[in-house]
C-alpha cells in the first residue's frame, strides 16, 4: 500500500492541508504527490520538466483533480492524460468546489471516473475522503500497468 | 313624271285620246256640213241670180232694143197697151216669182231705192239687210253681198248682187217718163237682186248624208269600245294574275320582312343588351380600376410605411442584436461570476470550517467551553454562508435555465412532495387536502421547485399549529386556472407583502423559521419565466394563500 501513490492536483494550500489532514485522519498513509497547477500535474505524469527522468513505470493509484487550476485547468489535464496511452486508464476523481452542471458533464465526457464536490463541512469532507480512499485504493482493481496497444 | 302618269293611267289616257279624236272628227264634220250647206245654198242663189241676169240681159238686148225700133215701148206693167212690153225689171221680177212658186220660203226680189212709181210699194229699201247691201254695193258693186238670217222660224240665205246700169239701160231710164231718176251713168248701181233661199232643206239633205258617217263612227266607237273592253278584261285578268302573284310575293316579302324585322328587332335588342352589358362592364371596369388605383395608392402608402417600419425594425433589430450581444456577454460574465462564486467563495469557507474543526480537535485541551462554543459558531456561520451561496447559485441557474414544457400531473406532483416531507418529518401531523386531476403544461423540474418551495413554506410555517392544514387546488382567474397553496400557519402581515418575493427577504426570525430567503424569489422567477403571475394573501397568525397562474 505504501507504493501506491496518490496524485493530488490542488492549487489552494488550505484545501491541500485539509485534504492531507482528512487522509491522515482516515489512516491513509500512501505517498501523496501534490501538483499545484495543471502543468506540474502533467510534468509528473509524463516525466517532464521538474519531474524529468522520473520512473514512469510508477504511476499514481488515484488522481484527485481539482478543476480550477492555474496555467492549465483540470479539464485540460484530464483531456491530455486520457489522450495518452500511458495514462489513459488512470483513475481520476474530480474533487472540486463546483457544483455546476456543465463541469460535471464535461468531466464525465472527458473520461473522469468519479466526481466529488468538496463539502464545506470538514466532517462531511473527511467522510468523503475516507470513502474515496477505501474505494479507489483498496476495492478498485486498476488496469494492468502495461497495456497492450491495438 | 308625265310618262309615269301615262303608264299608270293607260286606259284613261287612251280613252281621252280616243274621245278627242272623235270630237275632232265630229267638229270637222259639223264644220264640213255647215260649209256644205253654205256652199250649196250660195250655189242655188247664184244659179237663180245668174239665170235671171242672163235672161234680163238677153231680153234687154234682143227683145227690148229690137222692138224699140219698131215702136214698141217697154214700160211698166205687162197688162198695158198693145205697143207696150214689160220692162226688163218687171220681167225679172215676174220670172223670179214664177221660179220660186212651189218652193216655200224662196223669194226673188229686185230692189232699188229709185223704184218706178208703179212699184213703189214693192221696191225701195225696206229692211236693214237691203240698206246695208245698198251701201256695200256703192263701194264694191262687183261682189255679191249675203247673210244668213232667221225668217219666220226658218234659216234663210239672203243673197244680193248689184244691178249696174248698162248703156241701153241708161238711155231708157234717163228717157223714160216714169223714171224716178234721169241722171243715170253707165256702170252706176241702180239696184240689186235679192234671192231669199231657205237653208233648212239643204241642211236636212246634208244631215241625211252625214248620218251614215255618224253611224259608221258610232259603230267604230262600239267596236273600239268592245276591243278596248276585251283588252281591258284581258289586261285585268293578267293584272289580276300579276296582282295575285304580286300579292303572294308581297305577302312572302311581308313575311320575310316581318321575319327580318323580328330578327332585326331581336338583333337590336341583343345589340342593346350587348351595349348595356358593355357599358356596365366599362363602368365596372372603371370602378374596379379606380378601386384598384385607390388600393394601389393605399398599397404604395402601406408599402412605404412598411418599408419605414421595416427600416425601424431593422434599426431596432440592430440595436437588439447589439443588446443581445451585450446581454450574452453579461450573461457570460455572470456565469463566470457564479462559477467563481461557487468555487472561490466556498474554498475559504471550507478552510474556515476545516481549520476550526482542526483547532477543536487538536487543541481541545487548551480551550475552555466558551472558546469551543465560539469555534462552533464560526463553523455554523461558514456552513450557513455555504447554504446562501448555494441558494444564490440556484436562483441564478433558474434564471438562465431553458424551459422545456410538457403536460404535468400537478396533483400527483403535490402528493409526492408532501409524502417526502412526511417521511423526512414523520412526527408531524398535517391534514393535506389535494384537488384531484389537476394538470398543467410547464417545465416539470422548475414547477417541482415552485411546488417544493410553496409546500415547504406551508409545511414550515404550520409547524406550531395543533391542527395543521395544507390545501392545494385551483380557482378560475381571468379565464385561466389559478393554482393555489393554502395553509393555516403563521401567515404574514400584508403590509410587507411586496417584500415577499424579493431575494434574501425574510419576514420571520431565522431562529423561529430557518431559511435563506430565496425560496419565494426563486418561485417568482420561475412563474415569471412561464409567463404567469403569482400573488399572496395572508394575515398574521391566520395563514397564507399563494395563487399562481402559468
The percentage helix of chain B is 55-70%
Shape of chain A: globular
Order of helices and strands of chain A: EHEHEHEHEH
Radius of gyration of chain A: 14 Å
Mean pLDDT of chain B: 83
Looking at the structure, what is the overall shape of chain B?
rod-shaped
Which stretches of chain B are poorly predicted, pLDDT < 50 over at least 5 residues? Answer: none
Oligomer type: heterodimer
- Which topology of chain A does CATH recognise? Rossmann fold
Strand order of the largest sheet of chain A: 2-1-3-4-5
Distance between the termini of chain A: 31 Å
Give the topology string of chain B: H per helix, E per strand.
HHEEHEHEEHEHHEHEEHEEHEE
Counting structural domains of chain A, the number is 1
Strand content of chain A: 5-15%
Number of strands of chain A: 5
Q: Mind summarizing the main beta sheet of chain A? A: 5 strands, parallel
Instruction: Using the 3D structure, state the CATH architecture of chain A.
Output: 3-Layer(aba) Sandwich
Comma- or semicolon-separated keywords:
heterodimer; A: 150 residues; alpha/beta; Rossmann fold; five-stranded parallel β-sheet; 5 helices; globular; B: 550 residues; alpha+beta; Heat Shock Protein 90; five-stranded mixed β-sheet; four-stranded antiparallel β-sheet; 10 helices; 13 strands
Amino acid at each position: 500500500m505504501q507504493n501506491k501513490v496518490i496524485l493530488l492536483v490542488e492549487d489552494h494550500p488550505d484545501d491541500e492541508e485539509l485534504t492531507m489532514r482528512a487522509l491522515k485522519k482516515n489512516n491513509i498513509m500512501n505517498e501523496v504527490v501534490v501538483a499545484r497547477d495543471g502543468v506540474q500535474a502533467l510534468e509528473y505524469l509524463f516525466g517532464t520538466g521538474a519531474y524529468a527522468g522520473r520512473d514512469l513505470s510508477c504511476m499514481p493509484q488515484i488522481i484527485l483533480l481539482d478543476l480550477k487550476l492555474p496555467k492549465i485547468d483540470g479539464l485540460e489535464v484530464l483531456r491530455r492524460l486520457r489522450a495518452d496511452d500511458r495514462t489513459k486508464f488512470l483513475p481520476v476523481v474530480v474533487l472540486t468546489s463546483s457544483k455546476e452542471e456543465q463541469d460535471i458533464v464535461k468531466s464525465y465526457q472527458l473520461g473522469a471516473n468519479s466526481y466529488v464536490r468538496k463539502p464545506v463541512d470538514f466532517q462531511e469532507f473527511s467522510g468523503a475522503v475516507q470513502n474515496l480512499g477505501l474505494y479507489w485504493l483498496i476495492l478498485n482493481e486498476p488496469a494492468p500497468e502495461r497495456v497492450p496497444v491495438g | 313624271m308625265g310618262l309615269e302618269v301615262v303608264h299608270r293611267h293607260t286606259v284613261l289616257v287612251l280613252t281621252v285620246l280616243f274621245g278627242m279624236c272623235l270630237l275632232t272628227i265630229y267638229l270637222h264634220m259639223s264644220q264640213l256640213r255647215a260649209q256644205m250647206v253654205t256652199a250649196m245654198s250660195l250655189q242655188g242663189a247664184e244659179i237663180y241670180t245668174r239665170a235671171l241676169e242672163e235672161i234680163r240681159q238677153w231680153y234687154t238686148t234682143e227683145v227690148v232694143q229690137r222692138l224699140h225700133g219698131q215702136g214698141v215701148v217697154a214700160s211698166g206693167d205687162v197688162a198695158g197697151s198693145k205697143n207696150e212690153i214689160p220692162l226688163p225689171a218687171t220681167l225679172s221680177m215676174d220670172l223670179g216669182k214664177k221660179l220660186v212658186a212651189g218652193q216655200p220660203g224662196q223669194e226673188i226680189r229686185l230692189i232699188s231705192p229709185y223704184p218706178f212709181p208703179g212699184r213703189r210699194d214693192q221696191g225701195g229699201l225696206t229692211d236693214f239687210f237691203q240698206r246695208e247691201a245698198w251701201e256695200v254695193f256703192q263701194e264694191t258693186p262687183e261682189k255679191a253681198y249675203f247673210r244668213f238670217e232667221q225668217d219666220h222660224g226658218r234659216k234663210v240665205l239672203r243673197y244680193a248682187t248689184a244691178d249696174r246700169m248698162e248703156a241701153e239701160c241708161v238711155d231708157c231710164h234717163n228717157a223714160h217718163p216714169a223714171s224716178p231718176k234721169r241722171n243715170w251713168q253707165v256702170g252706176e248701181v241702180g239696184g240689186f237682186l235679192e234671192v231669199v233661199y231657205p237653208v233648212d232643206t239643204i241642211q236636212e239633205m246634208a244631215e241625211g248624208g252625214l248620218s251614215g258617217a255618224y253611224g259608221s263612227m258610232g259603230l267604230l266607237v262600239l267596236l273600239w269600245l268592245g276591243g278596248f273592253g276585251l283588252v281591258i278584261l284581258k289586261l285585268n285578268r293578267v293584272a289580276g294574275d300579276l296582282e295575285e302573284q304580286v300579292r303572294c310575293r308581297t305577302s312572302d316579302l311581308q313575311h320575310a320582312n316581318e321575319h327580318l324585322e323580328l330578327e332585326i328587332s331581336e338583333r337590336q335588342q341583343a345589340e342593346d343588351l350587348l351595349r348595356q352589358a358593355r357599358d356596365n362592364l366599362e363602368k365596372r371596369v372603371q370602378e374596379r380600376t379606380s378601386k384598384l388605383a385607390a388600393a394601389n395608392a393605399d398599397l404604395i402608402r402601406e408599402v412605404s410605411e412598411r418599408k419605414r417600419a421595416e427600416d425601424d425594425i431593422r434599426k431596432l433589430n440592430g440595436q437588439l442584436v447589439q443588446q443581445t450581444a451585450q446581454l450574452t456577454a453579461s450573461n457570460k460574465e455572470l456565469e463566470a461570476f457564479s462559477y467563481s462564486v461557487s468555487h472561490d467563495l466556498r474554498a475559504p469557507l471550507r478552510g474556515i470550517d476545516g481549520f476550526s474543526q482542526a483547532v477543536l480537535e487538536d487543541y481541545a485541551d487548551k480551550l475552555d467551553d466558551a472558546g469551543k462554543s465560539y469555534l462552533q459558531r464560526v463553523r455554523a456561520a461558514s456552513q450557513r454562508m455555504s447554504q446562501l451561496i448555494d441558494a444564490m447559485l440556484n436562483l441564478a441557474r433558474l434564471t438562465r435555465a431553458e424551459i422545456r414544457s410538457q403536460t404535468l400531473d400537478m396533483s400527483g406532483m403535490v402528493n409526492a412532495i408532501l409524502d417526502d416531507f412526511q417521511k423526512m418529518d414523520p412526527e408531524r401531523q398535517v391534514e393535506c387536502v389535494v384537488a384531484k386531476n389537476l394538470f398543467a403544461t410547464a417545465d416539470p423540474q422548475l414547477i417541482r421547485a415552485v411546488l417544493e418551495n410553496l409546500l415547504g413554506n406551508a409545511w414550515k410555517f404550520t409547524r406550531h399549529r395543533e391542527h395543521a392544514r395544507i390545501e392545494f387546488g385551483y380557482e378560475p382567474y381571468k379565464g385561466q386556472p389559478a393554482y393555489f397553496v393554502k395553509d393555516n400557519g403563521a401567515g404574514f402581515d400584508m403590509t410587507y407583502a411586496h417584500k415577499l418575493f424579493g431575494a434574501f427577504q425574510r419576514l420571520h426570525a431565522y431562529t423561529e423559521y430557518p431559511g435563506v430567503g430565496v425560496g419565494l424569489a426563486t418561485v417568482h422567477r420561475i412563474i415569471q419565466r412561464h409567463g404567469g403571475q403569482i400573488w399572496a394573501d395572508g394575515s398574521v397568525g391566520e395563514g397564507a394563500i399563494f395563487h399562481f397562474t402559468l
